[in-house]
Each structure stands twice: as C-alpha cells, then as structure tokens.
What we know:
Distance between the termini: 45 Å
Shape: globular
Amino acid sequence: MTLANLITIIRLIFIPIYGTLAWQYGESVLAGNPVESLRWWALCFFILTAAGDALDGYVARRTNSPTRLGAILDPLADKVLMLVALVVLSQVPWGEHGWQLPVWFASMVVLRDISMGIGIAMILKLNGSVAIHTHWIGKVCTIAQMFTLGWVMLKVVPFSPIYPVLLTAAITLFSAHHYTIESIKQLHSIRHRGT
C-alpha cells in the first residue's frame, strides 16, 4: 500500500468521526446547552479530512505512485465527506434561529450527485468508457458548497446561512445543467456511432 493511499484511507476513517461529533454538537444545541468542544473537534476532523485531499494527491505525485485504488478512493472520500456534512448540518442545528442547512438544499445536492452517477453508469454501460472532462463550473460548485458548509460550522458571520445557500444552490443547478448537457452529447455520440 502506498503512502498516498494510506492517507486517503485515514481520511475515510475520519469522516464518520466528524459526522458523529457534528451530530452530537447539534444535539447539544437542541438540548439548549451547546458543547463547544464538540463543535471544535468536529471542525478539526472536517478540516483534516478536507485538507488530506491535497496531501494525498501531492504525495502520489511526489513519489510517482498514483494507483487505481487511489483514483477511486480519493474522489470517494471527497464526496462522502461532503454528503455527510450536508446531511448532518441539515438535520441538526448548529445555532439558534435555524442556523442549519435547509433540507431542500441538502436534497438538491444529493440528487445532483445521484443523477450524475446514473449518467456516468449509463455511458459506461453503453460505451465501455466515459470521458469525464473537468469544467470550471464543477470546481466553483465544490468551492461554493465547502464555503456554505464553513459558513454554518464556523459561525463567524452573524448573517443567516440562507444567503450562501441560495447562491450555492444556483451554482449547483447550473453545474447540474452543464454536466447533463455533456452526458447527453456523449450518449448521442454513442448512438450515432452505433448506427
């Protein structure tokens, strides 16, 4: 096992720890007695897991040891961290007066990811391979989602999380539209080759 893969596996182990701490903090907020140490521990595990994305990639490049396992586990760790944070922060508050993510927002992001997965699976089934081209909107979408999660977890800015949520929702929808069009183009290309 390479060092880069070991880092990725540690990131995957940290995700349920983050989720548990984040949930427990939310429960303490609901009980009217927020345990701030839980929030800071949850933030630490979230940051370590997110930062590990850059670290495992750097180590793989530096040691010239990219692997197929790493190519699968690395994006999986990113996506699972994002989904766990979205679900937890939409189910328990991290502050008073609705300081949490709306359920519709978390559902929209999850449905976008599921629809993208279905599109990729369909193309793989029909073509045997899929051309995944990274696009600036995908990167902007990920940054916006992380920013929104940070807004809720850090509680630095006193304004409601609904403001970054609405902006991120618009970016997420635009991203979903872009990748849907790309999937349709690939499916049309496959169909035309088959005729």
